[in-house]
């Protein structure tokens, strides 16, 4: 009888260890998948914190809106000829905004609001540009899109300068 009990204990321990290993492996896989889902540009690692995947923080919400807009353009572009320059330009702008959103988390909470408001306008501009680009079948290289992308780059530079000035006025950030 004790042999049977001992056998059941060994089987239970093996099953328990197997379940624990499966849980750890599954959690790691889900974590990698979530991190991949946060990538703006395929092959470029996301610089955002993992918790942004489901966070309600304003930075995280703005990032997910940006991600959705860029994914829409990437999907719409597919393999269409003449789309790669526009998509690449939008992706570069999005990576700049990603850096700004991550950088804003380093600013004192009391100083974040004005920077986040500027970034919210910038993300809205990206969404609008992406929507216009997706809505055009032949307009991928139109000068108006290029002008809008240049304006967006200039706005990002101004936001970066403003954030740097805030960091200088508030030592220890």
Q: Please count the helical segments.
A: 5
Strand content: under 5%
Percent helix, as a range, is over 70%
Rg, alpha carbons: 23 Å
Q: Which word captures the global form?
A: elongated
User: Roughly what is the average pLDDT, rounded to an integer?
Assistant: 77
Structural class: mainly alpha
- Poorly predicted parts: 27-36
Distance between the termini: 68 Å
Number of strands: 0
Description:
About 6% of the residues have low confidence. This protein has a domain of 116 residues. Helix 2 packs antiparallel against helix 3 and helix 2 runs parallel beside helix 4. The protein has 173 residues and is an all-alpha fold.
Write the layout of secondary structure elements.
Elements: H1 2-37, H2 58-77, H3 84-104, H4 109-135, H5 143-169
Annotation keywords:
about 75% helix, mainly alpha, elongated, about 170 residues
Short account of what is shown:
The protein is mainly alpha-helical.
């Amino acid at each position: 009888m004790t042999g049977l009990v001992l056998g059941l204990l060994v089987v239970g321990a093996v099953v328990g260890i197997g379940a624990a290993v499966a849980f750890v492996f599954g959690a790691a896989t889900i974590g990698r998948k979530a991190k991949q889902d946060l990538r703006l540009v395929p092959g470029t690692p996301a610089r955002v914190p993992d918790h942004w995947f489901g966070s309600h923080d304003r930075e995280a919400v703005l990032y997910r809106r940006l991600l959705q807009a860029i994914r829409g353009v990437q999907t719409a572009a597919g393999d269409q000829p003449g789309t790669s320059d526009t998509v690449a330009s939008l992706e570069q702008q999005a990576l700049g905004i990603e850096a700004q959103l991550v950088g804003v988390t380093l600013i004192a909470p009391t100083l974040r609001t004005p920077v986040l408001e500027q970034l919210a306008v910038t993300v809205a501009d990206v969404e609008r540009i992406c929507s216009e680009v997706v809505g055009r079948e032949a307009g991928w290289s139109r000068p108006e899109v290029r002008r809008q992308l240049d304006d967006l780059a200039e706005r990002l530079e101004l936001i970066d300068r403003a954030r740097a000035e805030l960091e200088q006025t508030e030592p220890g950030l």
